[in-house]
Amino acid sequence: MRFVNWGIVLLVMIAVLVACDSDKKAENKHPPENEKQPEIAIPDFSADSAYHFIEKQISFGPRVPNRPAHKACAAYLVETLSNYTPQVIEQNFESTAYDGTNLSLKNIIASFNPDKSKRVLLAAHWDTRPFADNDSIDTDRPIIGANDGGSGVGVLLEIARQLHLNTNFDVGVDIILFDGEDYGVPANEKGFRNVPYGGFCLGSQYWSKNKHVPNYSAYYGILLDMVGARGAKFYQEGLSMNSAPSVVRKVWDYGQSLGYGDYFISQKSEEILDDHKFVNQWANIPMIDIIEYDPSTKNYFGKYWHTHQDNMDLIDKNTLKAVGQTVLKLVYME
Ligand code: AHN
Ligand code: ZN
Q1: DSSP states of 242-289
Q2: Is 288 helix (H, G, I), strand (E, B) or coil?
Q3: Average model confidence (pLDDT) across the chain
Q4: How far is the CA of 148 from the centre of ligand 1 (A)?
Q5: Residue stretches of the chain with pLDDT short of 70
Q6: Per-residue pLDDT at 190
Q7: pLDDT on residue 29
Q8: Which of 182, 201, 240, 307 best tests ligand 1's pocket when mutated (most atoms within 8 Å of CB)?
Q9: Ligand 1 mean position, distance from CA 229 (Å)
């Protein structure tokens, strides 16, 4: 009689059983289209609330660094975020503006699920431009920045409120409000040609070299910039597509599937210098930029951009809802 190694027979049987079982698990992870997916409750983003958060910011006046309104608004932002999480950090620093002015700046960071290692970073700039360089009148007066400054922060404050009310999300979330984004060299200004990055994005440059937590990293990041104007269109921005194409596709897919296809346009746009550049290239965190883009205007943003028209009249709750609900879905699905 031939020798049978029962040990090997047993091992083969176990291997077959294990393989069958993991096949089943794989099936469960990807149910066929017609099978119902387990429902994940995604909270309703309140555009009314986001709108209120924008009104509140502009009630302080232009949030121009070194001015009292900037300081008062920072206190309001810290206090508001502290209602939603105990983890709020104020990162104070000094930076030199393009014209040599010393600026006292503050990045504000609010964290949710601080112990989770898988993290999503959501950001916007909270400062506003010191001049209306694209306007035809009062060009040296600061803009109120309802959209450019106010809108991204308004959406993020409402997301923070939802994260506090509905804790059934698995990922860690860090909300960073960058300062000193919009203190760049005025358009038509002939001097200052050698200023790095035109003097824009001072807060994200500082944070990318001095993260609030040593060795901090995130799975990916999303920057919101000018996300509240009536009829805004969001194209797939060049640097975002080069550094985090899968994140861009996921966001645009969610946006379109939620019915916001008029806002999320599946076409690539020019590369735009914005805070995500430094998060990508200096902090090595893949970050996309959801930013209004209008290929028909010469500066690619709306006609209101860096003018006194950037006020509450421009803000549309439907635009805030489209962006806010899409980003909120992303967080709860991670
Ligand atoms: C520049 O103006 C070079 N980039 C757009 C960044 C920005 C300014 N976003 C809002 N204001
Ligand atoms: Zn701006």
Answers
A1: HH-HHHHHHHHHHHHHTT-TTTEEEEEE----STHHHHHHTS---EEE
A2: strand
A3: 92
A4: 9
A5: 1-4, 6-38
A6: 85
A7: 46
A8: 182
A9: 15
Q: Using CA positions, which residue lies closest to atom 3 of ligand 1?
A: 273
What pLDDT sits at residue 318? 98
237 neighbors 289 (Cβ within 8 angstroms): yes
What pLDDT is recorded for position 33? 52
Q: Of the residues 200, 224, 234, 304, which should be mutated to test ligand 1's pocket, given the most ligand atoms within 8 Å of the CB?
A: 200
Name every protein residue with a CB atom under 6 angstroms from any ligand 1 atom: 148, 182, 198, 200, 225, 272-274
Q: How far apart are alpha carbons 224 and 179 in whole angstroms?
A: 14
Identify any residues that bridge with 151 across adjacent strands, giving them in sequence order. Answer: none
pLDDT value, residue 23 = 44
Look at the alpha carbons of 240, 246, 251, 256 in this order and tell me if their dihedral is positive or negative.
Answer: positive
* Rg of the chain (C-alpha set): 23
- Tracing tokens 């969001």 back to the chain, one arrives at 234
CA 205 to chain centroid: 16
Q: Is 223 exposed, middle or buried (0-12, 13-18, 19+ CB in 10 A)?
A: buried
Q: Which CATH class is domain 47-333?
A: alpha beta
Q: Supply the pLDDT for residue 298.
A: 79
* pLDDT of res. 26: 42
212: tokens are 């609030």
Closest protein CA for atom 7 of ligand 1: 274
Determine contact, residues 188/66, Cβ cutoff 8 Å.
no
- Predicted pLDDT at 120: 98
Measured in Å, residue 149 CA sits from the centre of ligand 2 at: 7
Q: Which residues 6+ apart lie within 8 Å of 117 measured at CB? A: 172
What local confidence, expressed as pLDDT, does residue 27 receive? Answer: 42
Mutate to test the pocket of ligand 1, among 272, 290, 292, 307 (most ligand atoms within 8 A of CB): 272
The predicted structure's pLDDT at residue 37: 57
